[in-house]
Amino acid sequence: MRHDHRPYWMHALWEQFENAWTRHFLEPHFESLGGHAKVVRPWNVEVFGPNVHAGQAIHIVSRKDQPVSFTVWSPSDAPGEIHIGDCCFFAGGIRILAAEKIVIGNAALLAKSVTITDSDWHGLYDRITARPPSAPVIIGDNVWIGDGAFVGKGVTIGDNAVIGARSVVTKDVPANTVVAGAPARPIRTLDPDGPFKTRLEMLGDAEGLDRFMKAAYRDQLKGNSTLGWLRSKFFPRRGD
Fold first, then answer.
1. For a tag site, which of 4, 8, 35, 130 has the least CB within 10 Å?
2. Higher per-residue confidence, 79 vs 84
């Protein structure tokens, strides 16, 4: 499929359905969820356990084969927590697993299949304890974590850092540093003065962005019809 053949009314109705699903079925599982959340296929997002907080304008893109999960698994007398800042993006297949504490700063970008955990969950010798060793994970503002990366317990990642795809991060990453590899090692230093452009700038005016996106979709889907969409589904042509 090269083109989106949907008429605009169909796109708008589907978006309203996703937003309603998010509010009715997904939002109650968060301890707190800021406004203007945008979740694609929210039925593939799981929030399990207490104390999962997310800020304004969170954006999650999930698929059936790439679910997104935010999990707090800890004893009731030492409850864990997940805190997510404003304007963060989560791609499909992401797992955030907290036994103690995971903090993700504002405007973070997490690519597909990233795993962040503050615990090993089992010891080398004791693999049945209900209280596995853990250490908080702190991720700064405007951090970009690449496809398939792993961030382990006790790690702090500074502002504006970039984690390369498939990296295994077991040690702290300074601010404005690009790391890659398994284990991850510094490969570049960014200018701390930037200038950086972040999702906070794009989503700071969420209502204005919403108006812009609606206008853009209207223009992109202009001329599409319901009959044309049906034809593309049941009688596809080369070039559709």
1. 130
2. 84
Q: Structure tokens of 60?
A: 């999650």
Instruction: Output the CA torsion sign for 15, 18, 19, 20.
Output: positive
The residues assigned a catalytic role are 122
> In a 3-state reduction of DSSP, which class is residue 48?
strand
C-alpha distances out from residue 37 to 11, 86, 232, Å: 17, 10, 31
Q: From residue 154, how far is each of 54, 127, 138, 172, 184 by CA, in Å?
A: 21, 20, 8, 8, 15
Identify the sign of the CA torsion 24, 30, 35, 38.
negative
Name the nearest CA neighbour of 137 among 86, 93, 165, 103.
103
Phi, psi of 170 (to 5 degrees): -120, -5
Dihedral (C-alpha) 50, 53, 59, 61: value to the nearest 10 degrees? -10
Does the pLDDT value for residue 3 go beyond 90? no
Name the token pair of 44: 């593939």
Give me the mean pLDDT over the 168-189 stretch.
97
**Cβ partners under 8 Å of residue 153, min gap 6:** 117, 118, 119, 120, 133, 134, 135, 137
Q: In this structure, what token pair is assigned to residue 1?
A: 């499929």
pLDDT (tens digit per residue) in 28-51:
999 999 999 999 999 999 999 999
Arithmetic mean of pLDDT over the chain? 94
Strand partners, 89: 59, 109
pTM of the model: 0.93
